[in-house]
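hey so i finally got around to running the thing on that chain from the lab meeting. sorry it took forever, my laptop kept dying and i had to restart like 3 times. anyway pasting the input first so we r on the same page abt which one it is
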Amino acid sequence: MEKKIGNLFKGDKGIWTVFLFLCLISIVEVFSASSTLTYKTHNYMMPLIYHTAMILVGVAVAIITLNIPCRYFKLLTPLMLVITYATLLWVLIGGESINGANRVIQLPGFTFQPSEIAKGTMVLTAAQILSAMQREDESGADDKAMKYILFLVVPATMLIGLENLSTACLLFAVIVVMMFIARVPLRQMGKLMGVLVLLVGLFLGLVFWLAKYDKEGQAMEQAQADGLEQVDKPAEKKDRSGFEKLTHRFWTWKNRIAGKSDKNVSAEEYKITDKNFQVTHANFAIASSGVIGKGPGNSVERDYLPQAFSDFIYAIIIEELGLLGAIAVVFLYVILLFRAGRIASRCENNFPAFLVMGLTLLLVFQAIINMCVAVDFGIVTGQPLPLISKGGTSTIVNCAYVGVILSVSRSAKRKDQSVKTAEV
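ok and heres what got predicted. didnt touch it at all, straight out
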């Protein structure tokens, strides 16, 4: 029996331990934080049943993925690129709107978020290019590697960024770090950084200048301020002009950026508005937590935070599990990064090493962004906490990423065993 279980959970035991702990925390905390969903559906157990089902499907996907030899992931790259660009264009033109942005494709029985697939595809593509273009003298990547990567990655990040800017920035940051790890020439990295700084400055200027043309964003904010629900109608989306499609997220971006600079307000003058509603209640949750928290299921702020089970679940974790629980969750992601680094260092070839680091950085960077937002240390982005927040596509895809990491760990382990045998 123990042997059968061991064969099922193959790969790095440290990664498996972190993965299963995150899944258990996810089930408990999503169930606790889903009070708003329970109220809307009048079904106390449905959020727990749905999310547990997604976690179990994700674990099954991870087990299937870890049994795929790493070399076969290379063969998937062309197909994944076609699927990625096709679905990104599809969601941009005919996707369903969530919080004013076209981010999901409605399929029979479920919704599909193309950006989740796109992140993994771009990491896979970058890993393959960087590994194939390593110089023979082991001095790093060839000068052309960056050009090929940017040619394939930049269009995808632009398509994602039109509706989900934070995901696009997250993906591009991971690709840049991957190029640094693969030792792309520093002069090229310096030029890229200079161009990025210039583009960020131009982008911020455009956002603040053109935000006034985002009538849809202004109307949504006014409706929320008046206590009304904003409902997107398909007919309204089709009526957007080309200019409106380009600028319809600018008002949201401007408010999120400007909101971080408006901090010098006394407690007596502070007012809870639509702009700071989520962050304020997240701060209430953290401030009332203490060292050991209120205990699982005893959160108060979950009833006020509309995204308590997703974007702000870390604040609920702190409220219920206290400072110790917050540190424990951070520690799990640190272990994940550390173990991935160990696996990458043991890889015989560059491709699996770059792939495992890229996928791990996706998970860890996203976790850092989510936790920083929850503790009011960053701009509200809408990034869920990977492997913990409630999700459909994101949960399953993140589990697939873990499966790929475990697959690489298996081949790295076999390499270590062969080296030890040769030494003996």
